[in-house]
Write a structure and sequence with these properties.
241 residues; alpha/beta; Nucleotidyltransferase, domain 5; 2 domains; 5-stranded mixed beta sheet; 10 strands
Length: 241
């Protein structure tokens, strides 16, 4: 199976081409935020390097969120357009799971990937390796960093935090709980090779159109809409707009 994997859900932008579990080519940019400018040229360059044509791919795997509003939309929209145009399978994977997979399956600890969600909050989930498979123990969520650490302190197991501990997050607590350790910062860089492996054997979406980002919180546009329309609700605001 030939897989194109895309992740622009946060500051790093990463693309990989994988065939039958083998990484053929990958590029990660961690110094720009203009993912909309660099994504398609990067995909095109990698295709040229491995001598693939767009029609050669069987599946597109995309990091579906949570993360940056704009970043997630860029990757998801690109993946949807390519999947629809090329008539290939589309799979979404949690952006947090992608980071959790950087921790080797030899560990028995609970793996907690996190992203800075601003205002002292984080996106975080809990994962654990079991029989060679990464299992989600706590659903991805949006919460305060202090609240997250309180929850982890109550866990009767070693915990590995994986992510970039920004100053905004550090200001929310004094010390980590005794059972919690922070992985080196390099572990927080998403690997689209791991993204491809994670999505390789999962069921593809049945319909491309309803496939939307997992924001885990309402967008600024939706918050503004709610202020202008008090009492009104929308089942799927993202899809409607």
């Amino acid at each position: 199976m030939k897989v194109l994997a895309i992740d622009t859900s946060n500051h790093p932008m990463s693309v990989a081409l994988v065939e039958d579990d083998q990484l053929l080519a990958t590029t990660t940019l961690n110094m720009v935020r203009n993912h909309s400018i660099y994504l398609m040229p990067t995909i095109d360059r990698l295709f040229n390097l491995v001598k693939w044509q767009p029609a050669d791919i069987d599946r597109i795997v995309v990091a579906q969120g949570p993360g940056s509003y704009t970043g997630i939309r860029i990757a998801v929209t690109t993946a949807k357009v390519l999947a629809d145009t090329l008539k290939v399978e589309l799979v979404g994977v949690s952006s947090l799971e992608v980071v959790a997979r950087n921790v080797l399956p030899t560990t028995t600890a609970i793996i907690v990937p996190f992203f800075d969600a601003r205002r002292g909050n984080v996106f975080a989930g809990a994962y654990q390796w079991k029989d060679g498979q990464l299992v989600n123990r706590i659903e991805d969520q949006h919460l305060g960093m202090a609240t997250l650490l309180d929850q982890l302190a109550a866990v009767d197991q070693p915990v590995i935090l994986v992510g970039h501990l920004t100053k905004r997050i550090e200001d929310q607590f004094e010390v980590l709980p005794d059972n919690v350790t922070l992985a080196p910062r390099a572990y927080g860089i998403p690997s689209t090779y791991q993204l491809a492996l994670a999505g390789e054997n999962r069921p593809a979406v049945k319909e491309i159109d309803p496939f939307v980002p997992h924001y885990l919180r309402i967008t600024e546009a939706e918050a503004n809409w709610q202020k202008l329309h008090p009492g009104e609700t929308r089942q799927n605001y993202v899809r409607e707009v």
